[in-house]
Predict the structure.
Amino acid sequence: MAFNTKKTKSYQYIDEGEGEVLLLLHGLFGALSNWDEVVEKFSERYRVIIPMMPLYNLPIRKDSLTSLTRFLEDFVATMHLTHLTIMGNSLGGHIGLIFTLNNPDSVSRLVLTGSSGLFENSMGGSFPKRGSYEYIKERVEYTFYDPATVSKEYIDEVFETTTSIPKCMAIVGIAKSAQRHNLSGELHRIEVPTLLVWGLNDTITPPMVAHEFNRLIAHSKLRFIDQCSHAPMMEHSKEFNAILEEFLNETTLV
């Protein structure tokens, strides 16, 4: 289902529904559409917002994650958002974690799925192979348990991104920044209820990463989805949404 993209100042975002705010964050090769099923289901009861992260518009620097977190902080302030339930996939989870650590009073719940922040295998750790559609197709499909989940349009979008040298350099810079920004020594400071939804067959952030997040975040609950890799909200949207709904109901805000 296609949702209208809105603009406020320099921000592009999806904003659907009313009520408590679910703030969804996409990953390095992600897009707003990654969360379509979540938006469709939960916008009936919640205000679901997805900002388009400026992955290719930031100055190339060693602390790219810091810049992305500042972008998110500015977006939240501009939109006057409070009592957030932050939900992040892959790099989006990493940024959500840093935001929560920096702004604990703004976050009421945290949902992580395939999050970086401890360990990840990544296509972005070195310069992505440009000009080879089959290589990009193979690497994108590697992040899904069932390659048929991946649409040709999504592969085309990633391929187009990797044909741009500046965008490739941005990808590498962000990926290296994520690898340097290990949060293992800081996660004990997270006190909000946290849901971890992980693909049992995740090849990017393997199940051991989920167990480590579960160990380090005190009030966390870990759920695995079988025959699922790095993007549970796309690969098994109904099961993901059922797990999420149960968590939201259990942690209803007063």
